[in-house]
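We close this part of the discussion by returning to an individual protein. The amino acid sequence and the backbone structure tokens for this protein are reproduced below:
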Amino acid sequence: MSIREPGPGERAWPERVTLEGTRVRTAFRVRYAETDQMGMVYYANYLVWFEVMRGDFMRAIGVPYARLEAEGWFLPIAEAHVRYLAPARYDEAVEVVAWIRAVRSRLVTFEYRVERGGELLATGWTTHVPVDRNGRPRPLSRELTGTLEVYKERASGDDPGR
């Protein structure tokens, strides 16, 4: 078996995180363990990809989750939504793009797009409520809210299902 070199414009193993204005893009290949018997990415894995993206997003903007947790803020999901438009399959290069849709002292909503070569595969969002180590609501600081506000986008018409 020979290994094919990437063609013009192709990246062999897209790596990994880019900051594009108010959006962050994470690229990776679909792993075999993420697929179902039909060879498509199992639906729940999109939520895992959203989690990976949130970690990448926060690191990209200079506020890693580890720092938030060290300072006593945790962001559990209060609500999540995914709209599936086309399947992803094993070893395909996919990208997850995210931005902040809403931020207030007691709420943060991330919005996501899953793409393959420019084709939209899925859209979604997660809403998080900040809590302390004991799970009690804890408002975000003005500084943190201000930092997140920089990456907030207004609603746009380019995302189906929203």
